[in-house]
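#lab-general

N.A. 3:47 PM
ok so I finally got the sequence cleaned up, no stray characters, all 336 residues accounted for. can someone with queue access submit it? mine expired

B.Y. 3:52 PM
send it over

N.A. 3:53 PM
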Amino acid sequence: MIGSQPFNLNRHQRTRIISNSTSFNAISNGSRSYYLVMQEMEMRQALTKKVMAALLGVLGLLALVASTHSGSTIAGEQSSGQDTEDLRAGKNFIQTKVYSAEEDEQILKLFDGLRVADVSDGMDRAGLANIGLMSPEIHAAWKDTIHFTHRFIGITVTVRYVPTNKPLAQLKDVEAFDRWVGNWYTNLSSEPFTPLIRKGTALVIDDAPNSDVGSIGSNNIMGWKLRGCVGVVTNATARDTDEIAIEKVPLYFRKVGRGIRPGRNEIESVNRPIVCGGVLVMPGDVIVADGDGVIVVPRAHAKEVAEYAQATIEKDKAGRRGLYEKMGLPLDDSVK
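B.Y. 4:20 PM
back already:
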């Protein structure tokens, strides 16, 4: 029976069966290989599409960044170019703060009666040790040791003169020379700060220190006093010093100067930051001057400095009054 007995195949029949089986396996394996290849190709195509999409996104982003950077660069270059031109024309970086006459008056009341020494102690207390103390070379042109009228306390108006580089006039005719002098005073070395002077003003001048020039004299200093100026400080020179002493206008300077301004200096600025006696002076700062020299109090610290300085001078006066009484000395203005 077929179900229980083996087939009786001859050699040729077995060969055909084996051959047919081998061919079927080969065809089957080939189909599987083809399918796998096609599947791999499809996966590669899909991956390639994703990569291309990502690259296009990156390129778009780079283009946007480049465009933005280019625009910023152009704007920056334009801005930089404008800034450069502004700088080339000259530019001030420290702004001048403006105070009212009422504000100045309130500050001056806080400093009433104070000396340089007291204010220096107040500056120490405010953390401003050795700041604001002008060089001892800046000293009183004259002194009143009875009533101390050479002392003053004021609010700064600043002025800056610079040495000229223009030649002196070579004029033999007197009238021509006088016209040259008048023109210089009017156009090159005038006093445009005069309208700024008001009650309580301290005029502080940064002048040409190595020029033998008397920018300050007995005439103009009287005119400044008439407008309300309480004292003048310069890092340079003044002339007519005998007359100024008689006029009793407080003046603090480095040394005597004899020449006139024409041919020696020119006005550079008014109410801008200056350096006088080695320290920064800003418009609106407080100036205290006496026999010990000159000190500049930054406006922002004025109240704190004044309060401590007032406590200092009261203790000093009380202590010295006691000593005066023990020694039988009459009380003077320094202890009253």
